């Protein structure tokens, strides 16, 4: 294969990962709740979150390509261990919560498919995920689930068949204030932000660029996949919101269980829709389970300088392998003990949004460090965008949580 | 002359051993003062209680507690002479063997007592 063909292959793969790997329990749950409670009105937050994610992924990829080092590696070295402990602890906690949510998502899908209770699936799911990490390589983790995740395109078909007013969808992409339930509106808005942009994503992405040995030739591939992949992924998230707005909003139903969620696909697509929902939930949450567990291991190993690579046999990176093994078990135990996956997901997404400045601000500093990035430092557009995203995340969180608490 | 800034370029940098295996990060540096000589960087410190000291008192207390509970006698700190440095470029390579380092004791213990005993844990490649 020529070098060019290989690069375009990477772009195609990036698109598949963007489509098949974008949705997971957080984006499905937040977009469905948004659509059910506020119709199309919150679509703009999905757009904002997706744009933020595309920029952050482009930057963490560029950082790794230019410096040949991961984000966490540079975070520890340039900021020193004292500062590093803050994002380490916060991202660790948020990631374990997210991991439990994803395992809960897979378990809920399996429970819907079989009738066997959610909690009983937690340990089998954890075991299969662990086996894949234990025996598989980075390519398996990155591409395997993304390819099966293509089933999530069913949401696009569902949205199409529900015949929404597309100009109304277009209008909803412009920010607007709520006409009712102000507290709930902003609370869901902040959870959508957290579901779109998770710190584990850029830890995973910059580690992936090193695992896959991306060279300087990949600067453009990186930009193209970050933009196009997220465009498709974000489009699917909007499709989920549209389905929920069309199916659930008119009857003012509470979207408080995955069974209700499933109706947003079974209404337009019938029995096939139900199965597509279950498959999407199961596969995409499973993919996210692998990515989050690996990201925690990457963060600890790179932060403390341990040997790490998903391509090494476990005995060559013992602490790295132990790290993903242990977090998977911790997260699975939470579900086994009956934590409600859906409630956990919403809380986790809000906590994730609140944690964003702790990782985005150091990333901003690194992206402007000429020693690290040479002539590939950020332009003012990228910088301004990062600052805006951090400020919005803090403002949304600062406004939403007190409002929610006041509203009880 | 190309100089390196101790705090900016050396402190917290990734360390590699002579086989280019990752062996922790530079958690501390020891300066040596001798009568009549300018001060010089003598030793690189890695891991254990030294890392805890840089994080804060609570981390030292926690590290002590864990080490005592695990029955470890040493402080877990590797002391590598600065003269063993072979290369400084992003990561820093030192002419030592990972097997000889106290700070890698946990890695070795986990590898032999846990990882290799799990099914498939003794394979040489994935």
In short:
With 408 residues, chain A is mainly alpha-helical. Chain A contains 16 helices and no strands. The interface between A and B is medium-sized, with 31 and 36 residues.
Keywords summarizing the entry:
A: 408 residues, mainly alpha, 80% helix, B: 126 residues, alpha+beta, 3-stranded antiparallel β-sheet
Describe it:
The complex is a heterodimer of chains A (408) and B (126). Chain A has 16 helices and no strands. Chain A has 408 residues and is an all-alpha fold. The mean pLDDT of chain A is 93. With 126 residues, chain B is α+β, with helices and mostly antiparallel strands. In chain B, the strands form two sheets. Chain B has a four-stranded mixed β-sheet with strand order 2-1-7-6, with no helix packed on it. Chain B has a three-stranded antiparallel β-sheet with strand order 3-4-5. Chain B is globular and about 60 Å long. The relative contact order of chain B is 0.19. The mean pLDDT of chain B is 92. Chains A and B meet through helix 4 and helix 13 of A and strand 2, helix 2 and helix 4 of B.
Any chance you could write out the topology, listing elements then pairs?
The complex is a heterodimer of chains A (408) and B (126).
Chain A: H1 3-22, H2 25-38, H3 43-67, H4 71-114, H5 122-135, H6 138-148, H7 154-161, H8 166-172, H9 182-196, H10 199-211, H11 219-247, H12 258-304, H13 318-336, H14 341-367, H15 370-373, H16 380-407
Chain B: H1 6-10, E1 14-16, E2 22-25, E3 28-32, E4 40-46, H2 48-55, H3 57-69, E5 78-81, E6 85-89, E7 91-94, H4 105-113
Helix pairs in contact in B: 2-3
Helix count from the secondary structure assignment of chain B: 4
The averaged pLDDT of chain B comes out at 92
Share of helix of chain B, binned: 25-40%
**What's the count of strands of chain B?**
7
Described by its quaternary structure, the protein is heterodimer
Order of helices and strands of chain B: HEEEEHHEEEH
Average pLDDT number of chain A: 93
Structural class of the secondary structure composition of chain A?
A: mainly alpha
Gap between N and C termini of chain A, in Å?
A: 60 Å
Strand content of chain B: 25-35%
β-sheet strand percentage of chain A: under 5%
Shape descriptor of chain B reads globular
Poorly predicted residue ranges of chain B: none
- Which class do the helix and strand fractions of chain B yield? alpha+beta
**Major interchain interface with per-chain residue totals:** A-B, 31 and 36 residues
Rounded to an integer in angstroms, the radius of gyration calculated over CA atoms of chain B is 17 Å
Described by strand count, sense and barrel closure, the largest sheet of chain A is: none
């Amino acid at each position: 294969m020529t070098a060019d063909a290989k690069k375009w292959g990477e772009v195609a793969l990036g698109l598949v990962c963007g489509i098949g790997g974008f949705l997971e329990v957080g984006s499905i749950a937040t977009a469905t709740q948004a659509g059910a409670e506020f119709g199309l009105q919150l679509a703009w937050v999905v757009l904002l979150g997706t744009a933020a994610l595309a920029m952050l992924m482009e930057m963490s990829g560029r950082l790794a390509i230019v410096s040949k080092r991961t984000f966490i590696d540079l975070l520890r070295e340039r900021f020193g261990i004292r500062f590093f402990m803050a994002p380490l602890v916060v991202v660790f906690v948020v990631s374990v919560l997210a991991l439990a949510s994803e395992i809960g998502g897979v378990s809920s899908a399996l429970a819907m498919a079989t009738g066997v209770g959610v909690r009983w699936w937690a340990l089998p799911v954890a075991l299969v995920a662990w086996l894949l990490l234990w025996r598989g390589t980075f390519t398996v983790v990155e591409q395997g689930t993304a390819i099966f995740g293509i089933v999530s395109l069913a949401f696009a078909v569902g949205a199409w068949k529900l015949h929404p007013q597309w100009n109304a969808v277009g209008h909803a992409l412009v920010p607007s204030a709520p006409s009712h339930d102000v507290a709930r509106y902003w609370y869901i808005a902040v959870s959508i932000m957290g579901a779109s942009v998770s710190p584990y994503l850029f830890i995973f992405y910059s580690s992936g660029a090193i695992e896959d040995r991306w060279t300087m030739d990949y600067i453009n591939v990186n930009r193209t996949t970050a933009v196009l992949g997220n465009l498709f992924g974000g489009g699917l998230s909007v499709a989920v919101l549209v389905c929920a707005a069309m199916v659930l909003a008119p009857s003012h139903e509470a979207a408080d269980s995955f069974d209700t969620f499933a109706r947003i696909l079974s209404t337009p697509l019938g029995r096939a829709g139900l199965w597509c929902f279950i498959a999407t939930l199961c596969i995409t949450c499973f993919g996210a389970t692998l990515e989050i567990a690996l990201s925690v291991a990457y963060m600890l190993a790179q932060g403390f300088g341990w040997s790490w690579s998903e391509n090494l046999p476990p005995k060559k990176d013992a602490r790295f392998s132990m790290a993903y093994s242990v977090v998977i078990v911790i997260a699975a135990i939470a579900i086994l003990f009956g934590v409600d996956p859906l409630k956990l997901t919403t809380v986790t997404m809000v906590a994730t949004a609140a944690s964003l400045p702790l990782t985005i601000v150091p990333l901003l500093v690194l992206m402007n460090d000429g020693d690290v990035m040479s002539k590939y430092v950020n332009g003012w557009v990228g910088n301004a965008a990062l600052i805006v995203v951090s400020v919005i995340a803090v403002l949304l969180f600062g406004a939403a949580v007190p409002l929610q608490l006041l509203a009880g | 002359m190309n100089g390196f800034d101790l705090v900016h370029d050396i402190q917290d940098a990734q360390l590699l051993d002579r086989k280019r295996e990752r062996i922790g990060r530079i958690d501390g540096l020891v300066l040596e003062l001798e009568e009549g000589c300018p001060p010089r960087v003598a030793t690189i410190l890695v891991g254990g209680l030294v890392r805890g000291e840089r994080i804060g008192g609570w981390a030292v207390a926690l590290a002590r507690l864990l080490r005592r509970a695990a029955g470890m006698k040493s402080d877990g700190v590797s002391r590598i002479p600065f003269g063993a440095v072979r290369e400084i470029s992003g990561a820093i390579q030192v002419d030592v063997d990972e097997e000889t380092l106290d700070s890698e004791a946990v890695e070795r213990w986990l590898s032999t007592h846990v990882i290799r005993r799990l099914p498939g844990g003794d394979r040489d490649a994935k």
